[in-house]
Amino acid sequence: MAADFSPFLYPILGGLLIGLSATLSLLLLGRIAGISGIIWGAFAPRGLEARSELEDGAGGEFGFEPGRLWRLLFLMGLVLGSLVFHIVTGRPMPVPSDNAGLAIVAGLLVGIGVKLGSGCTSGHGVCGIGRLSLRSLLATCLFMFAAIVTVAVIRLAGISV
Amino acid sequence: MKLFNISALLSGLIFGVGLAASGMTNPDKVIGFLDIFGQWDIDLLLVMGSAVFVTLISFRFILKRDKPFYAPLFVLPVSSLVDKQLIAGAILFGIGWGLYGYCPGPVIASLAYLHVNTFLFAAAMLAGMFVAKFLFVKK
To answer: Are residues A20 and A49 in the same domain?
Structure first.
């Protein structure tokens, strides 16, 4: 019987597309496709956006302040891209845990963590390692380790979340 | 600057398709990947591996250029500093990620699925960024 490689097809294809997106961001926009940074830059109050945005005025059209519009478009693309994927392939849309309290606590921790740590899975993990940044490699190892320990503790404690 | 904005949308679209295709927008799958002492699901290692495989190669060539296509300069992180802030941040992020299974990219891409908890997570995450910025981040 031939081995069935199809389960690996989607993860590999998905990873290659994420790498392609990071490549296009750097090649076309000159930006790191770090999602936490893009979210912050899209919604941060005036005056707290990155200084470089004000210098090159990127994406300041249509009444948007520099640095906002392209980030909002990128985030809109994220939502549309995943929507299109499920519609086209017919694969079921995943359902998250129905524990609302946990969603809020975890969201707060992720928000505080990525701001303090200057990046998340995409910025440090995919792009930072791609740039051979030791700082990003260390951050990636740390958040992977913390996440693995968290899941292990939940499992060992037998808590259902 | 039109091409700049169109490129941003395109790049986001490809990223969104990649996240949905890879399984990263499925918190159960993410937690299965982090659960190395249980029924370890290695798929997401392939996601990370193939994404980094691409950037490791492409970034070397791109960063030899003087400037990107549609912007006057590359905007790259300058800090190589490893300090308490980076360490604490990465650990807090990892705990939150492990608790629910969403990290920032996937939670935004998952807004497409219209589940209330995805919106709650995203709102809390944004609030967390503000808290961190105003209370803790030096600079």
So the answer is: yes
